Predict the structure.
Amino acid sequence: MDILTIGFEEQLRALRRVAAPIKNINGDVVHMAEEMIEAMIKGDGIGLAGPQVGRLERIFTIKIGDDDPMVFINPEITATSAELSSYEEGCLSIPGQYADVERPGLIQIQAWNTRGRPFTIEVNDIMATVIQHELDHLNGILFIDHISDRKREKILGKFDVEAESYPGVE
Ligand SMILES: [Zn+2]
């Protein structure tokens, strides 16, 4: 399973598209989740979203430290704290680039697992950041959309993407 990166025009455009809800959590979805977990671990990432592997579907996987990997299908953030925390973020689709991003420090998220069961969890710290970063991917948003124009242009420049040709969300 290949991971799309912003250095290729077509892949960048795909990363800027809004993913569709998964209607049926069947064997294909379970298989896709397993492949995503494998690609995420192989890439040394802590999160991976469907659009990053060319699947415009509302699914992402995370794996933080020694915890078991988790799969989130059709996730929705149901509450966020007013208090923000800041972490240095990176992205398998923007390899080698990092920037501090501020996001709500505590969130509640609802999603479905690969057995088709809904669950709700409340998370903070790094896990809250990773989940918000991955959920952004399902909406065509990259972490560089949360930083200053100057910093974003500098990162885009590393991939030979001109600021004017950075596509909007479709
Ligand atoms: Zn990412």
User: Anything to note?
Assistant: Residues 91, 93, 133, 137 surround zinc ion (CB under 6 Å). The beta strands are 47-49, 59-62, 70-80, 84-89, 99-104, 106-112, 118-124.
